[in-house]
User: What shape does this take?
Amino acid sequence: QYRPRPRRAVAFTRGFELGAFLQQTDFNSDAEIKDDVGYGFRFGYLYTPRQEIEFLYNAVNTQDEFDSRIGVDVSHLQAAYVFNFTDKAVVPYLTAGFGFVFTSDDSLGDESDPLLGVGGGVRFFMGPTTYFRIEARHNRFRGDGTVFASDTTFTFNEVGFGLGWRFPTY
Assistant: This one.
């Protein structure tokens, strides 16, 4: 008697992720920087089906809120922990990380500050390895007095949309 073999579900136990995205950055009013659209890249290592370490770079080129002739470049690097709630086709997740925000203001100079970020999002897999990602992230840092006021807490929020790929190592 013939019995068909059961179909195996493809589940990643380990793998790498690579992604690129566009983001809308919303600076708090104390920063005196215009909100603008930027870009970013991510690289992650999925060490269990639900846990991941991710490294991300985001950048936005914008202007001073009061004098648009003054350019302001804001970028940040973060290392973040990601918890995936499922390992299915739709993957909601939470993330938290730390890193540095780098600001270059045409009139005030350059500043680097430690940064904390928290966020969450959803990955929508369009196949076994390709996904569309939506994420919201809240970032917080303290100025050092060069570009941002000394010992003052500043925040900015990001909403990102992008594509990513997961490369399984099983």
Summary: The radius of gyration is 19 Å. The mean pLDDT is 91. The CA atoms of residues 70 and 165 lie 37 Å apart.
